[in-house]
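User: Hi! Is it possible to get a structure for several chains at once, not just one? Here's what I have:
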Amino acid sequence: MEQNITFRPKMDDELQAIDNKVLSMAELVETQILNAVKAIKEKDMKLARDIIDGDEEIDDLEDKINNDCFKFLATQAPLASDLRYAISIMKMIRDIERIGDHCVDIAKFAIRLNDKEYYKELIDLPRMAGMSTQMVSDAIRSFVDKDLRLARRVWKKDDEIDELYKFVLEEQLGVAGSEPEKAECAVQFAFVAEHLERIADYATNICEETVFMLEGKDLTKI
Amino acid sequence: MENKFTVRGLNLYYGDFQALKNINIDIPEHKVTALIGPSGCGKSTFLRTLDRMQDTVEGARVEGQILFDGEDIYRRDCDVIKLRKKVGMVFQSPNPFPKSIYENIVYGPRVHGITEKKKLDEIVERTLKEVALWDETKDRLNDSALGMSGGQQQRLCIARCLAVEPEVILMDEPTSALDPVATAKIEGLMHELSKKYTIVIVTHNMQQAGRISDQTAFFLLGELLEVNPTDKIFSDPDNIKTEEYISGRFG
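Assistant: Yes, the chains can be modeled jointly so their relative placement is included. Here is the combined structure:
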């Protein structure tokens, strides 16, 4: 067999290795989001502590990917879309790492709420968690698969989360104002909803990075 | 990781002029080592000590030790012909012989005693495939090598080098006479070849050193100022002179 010589095998190998690490980091945070809300819903303290401990692995991956990008920039001197790729990855993993931090915060709420009696079954928070997780997953998929349409679709989906967040916030603040015995619980639920809304915002940032990488344009100004 | 070459206390003189000063470096097996530095720094001179081509320069004198697979290549009874069979060289400008493509490749094996046509045919096919030239040349093996493009000629020269089954390939600015596309093909080829061969390359193109090598050695005024993994050299070099050179502050 004749060797199939590609023009830039080392560069492509390095890009592939970075992509794989980003996907691993993304999988970890997606699981963290779902587990964080599950820990609240099911009052699962072990799960909450696992989430807090698991954040270190996400932070380590961020450091590794940053380091890989730094070396990639230094040795491969990338240009055009390759340059935008490396810069986008460095911004994107900071967003993913922050999503991980929000999961830790939610897990801490789970611990605080452990001895409180919930005044209602949690439905909207798991729904928000599901939507946020899907947005994060799709946003990262749009980046790795270089899928512009998916990036734009996910970016628009943020409006739905914002609507749901507004609804949850009004509901919880209404309860807190009218029924003092439920106030503490309601306020904590509102905070959890805020964290989930922020996670969705980070997903939209990732979509913006995808568009910047592919088209060199700022999605917010198109 | 095994070292193919171990160089200790190497000094090289041209008459009274000292061109290399106390060079110490290990060249790891199956890796690409890049030698960088401004013109006249001694990098090409050093490259040529590794297959004893400096012996051909009148007045050149070498001190110190270069171990190749643990054997000192400057010992009195070293068989230089055998050494150069194991350590091939590719030069700056493509330099095919004014012969056919086929004859260029079989020249070395014939010198080393292979005469059987079937065996020579196999060598031609294997080496041209290794350098991704087979599909382009298989129907015109008897055409003159001088009719090929510069990039093809350089890949032919690499194939010619591979024909005698070397363990190391020394490359002295192998792409400086080529256009960017031919350069990219040679760089891709080097990456593939490093899985099987040890490569030492002199390059003036810093970005090329960054793209293709595993370790980089920086020479200045005959001294080896720094040798480190390439990503370290290009992101956080130990020596301030290395930093100044790679960032274009002198050279």
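Chain B has one domain: 3-246. The interface with chain A takes residues 129-132, 134-135, 181, 184-185, 187-189, 191-192, 207, 210-212, 230-231, 234-235 of chain B (CB under 8 Å).

User: Great, thank you!
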